[in-house]
Amino acid sequence: MEEVVDLTDLRQVWAQVPDPRDRRGRRHPLVVILALVQAAIVSGAVSYAAIRHWIRSAPDPVLAQLGARFDRRTGRHQAPHPDTVCRTMELLDAASVDAAYAAHRAAQLTDLYDDPDELIGLTVDGKTSRGSADAGKPARHRLGAHLPADAITVAQIDIDSKTNEIRAFQPLLDQLPDLTNVVVTADMMHCQRAHARYLHRRGAFYVLPVGGNQRGLFDQLNALDWNQVPIGWTTYDRGHGRNEIRTIQVMPAPPGTRFPHIKQVYLVERHVYDLAWKPLSSVAVLGVTNLPARQAGPRRLAEFVRGEWSIENKDHYVRDVTFREDHCKIRTASAPSILATMRSYAIGALRLLNFTNIAEGARWARDDFRHPLIALGLT
């Protein structure tokens, strides 16, 4: 009888990751090692030195809660040696770890979005870990899928030097078993006919900006008489010493528009001014979607577009500033990629505890060794 795995339980998810160590030398289960590293990262550990310190300092009740080995001689639970932890992280297969975390987040979607007909925004975006570059080797680049509304990373995948983000798009989303009613946004390079067909096959939708890589489509949309199309939705924001106005115009896809399953086309304009209303910048973006107007009018489309633009601040900025990812000098084997996945998971775990300021959440996690366990659902 096949074992049923509860993918909402992190322990059972970690148990699905293949252990690369020789069976004869395993004193500490892989699940315990991954739990200790993930808990340390939730507490803001950004280097091997910080992870080692957290593991060495973890009190006995916390080690017991995480399933650490019990030493009969001392009557206490024994944490794995920090060197063992570091070596194990370098031996692990990054793709297996990514797949396990993606399965876990996908299983949680039913709790985050309990309405089966609700449209779920998902942004695909890449990020480079600059500190991972070493001795002529390029820095690690990863493609991720994020929930922009909640700023939670759902899936990630490595991009090696022989490929690019376009080829990694489908393998990334293949990690998610169900894309029904998911609305995928991405930058201009992902405005690809193959991507559109793939998403349609999986019951998903796309909202994609059109640029120079689709010159014919761009020229066709740019030639439309947008002056005759009313503004469908406007937003105004004031902050960081500037005023920002965004507008969107939407129309049905004109006959003859050559893009798979297209239903609507749009024009988004963003105007930025200083506090005295002196113009600073203006950006206009044309785009396409297979969402029909009855499912997504101008306001909803504007929200999806803005979600794609916001992931830089909600995820990448936090990883670089709070978790200092670009300064992390861990470069060996799979460790940089696995730790990047764990940082993204830590951010999501803290956001699910309603921490909008992740630095504050990491400080809360450092205040008590039990707090990271609460964030990870391991209590």
UniProtKB/TrEMBL annotation:
InterPro entries: ISAs1_transpos, Transposase_11, Transposase_11-like, YbfD_N. Keywords: Membrane, Transmembrane, Transmembrane helix. Residues 124-335 form the Transposase IS4-like domain. It comes from the Bacteria. Pfam families: DDE_Tnp_1 (PF01609), DDE_Tnp_1_assoc (PF13808). The chain crosses the membrane at residues 30-51. Residues 14-103 form the H repeat-associated protein N-terminal domain. PANTHER family: H REPEAT-ASSOCIATED PREDICTED TRANSPOSASE, PROTEIN YBFL-RELATED. This is ISAs1 family transposase. It comes from Nonomuraea marmarensis.
